[in-house]
Amino acid sequence: MERKIKLIHPAIDIIFYFVVCFTLVVAVFVSILYPNVILEQGLSHRIFYLHVPVAWVALYGPLLSFVFSLIYFLKKDLLWDRLAFTANQLAFVFAIGVLFSGPIWAYSAWGVPWDKTDARLQSFFILCISLLSYFIFRYLVPSRKKKAILSAYLSVLCAVSAVLTWGAIRWIENPGNHPGSVLGKGGMDSDMKQTMWLGVLAYHFLFLFLFLLSNRNEKIQELKNTLRSELN
Q: Mind listing the pLDDT tens digit for each residue in 129-147?
């Protein structure tokens, strides 16, 4: 059976790679050198410029997966299942980054690395558990089509968890020590806002680059499995 695989020109990959590297390096150095330091927290406050952009991306991933899963339900094309899986993969990686960077910031701000009464921290932990459950159940189902159907339903659960995590500090009356939305009025000087938005741009570029690479890898693995089954 003849298969046509669309390949992206290597120059595009190289250009995108350098754009991602450049924006990340600039974002890191700007976050270290440019914004003023909050005296109560010291230099550890600079983890904020990594923590917040990474958290945003971690919340976008399950929502993208949910959209891809809905399209899969409509079209029954495994392409959309693969895209949903890729989005959840990266969401889990970035969510783990949030769980590691959050305690560093929390310790400097609150004096404890993990506040069990904080709604945002607990909801993010639940999001990680939801994503982990998605991967476990997906791995346990051998049939490719059944795997896609189950994964699509689980993507809904992960998306709901992401929305609840986003709303934890907005909808709960006493959400804990976690600060409110960074997009609220006041609260940040111009140098902090500029640095934060630069970080948001850089980590979104990173997400997109990893998304393309991961999806390409999944596609190659599926082609290998298909060819192997046909040869056997």
A: 999 999 998 888 888 888 8
Question: Would you say 12 and 213 are in contact if contact means Cβ atoms under 8 Å apart?
Answer: no
Record the tokens describing residue 67, joined without a space: 């959209």
Radius of gyration in angstroms for the set of CA atoms belonging to the chain, rounded to a whole number? 20
- The pTM score is 0.80
> Can you tell me the distance from the alpha carbon of 211 to that of 207, in angstroms, rounded to the nearest whole number?
6
Locate 151 and state its tokens.
Answer: 């994964």
For residues 165 and 128, the answer to whether their CB atoms sit within 8 Å is no
Give the position of tokens 């390409």.
Answer: 216
Residue with tokens 């958290």: 55
Report whether 109 contacts 41 (CB < 8 A): yes
Residue written as token pair 């990959």:
13
3-state secondary structure the chain: CCCCCCCCCHHHHHHHHHHHHHHHHHHHHHHHHCCCCCCCCHHHHHHHHHHHHHHHHHHHHHHHHHHHHHHHHHHCCHHHHHHHHHHHHHHHHHHHHHHHHHHHHHHHHHCCCCCCCCHHHHHHHHHHHHHHHHHHHHHHCCCHHHHHHHHHHHHHHHHHHHHHHHHHHHHCCCCCCCCCCCCCCCCCCHHHHHHHHHHHHHHHHHHHHHHHHHHHHHHHHHHHHHHHHHHC
pLDDT of residue 87: 93
Per-residue pLDDT band for 67 (boundaries 50, 70, 90) equals very high
Q: Count how many residues are written for the chain.
A: 232
Interatomic CA distance for residues 147 and 133, integer angstroms: 13
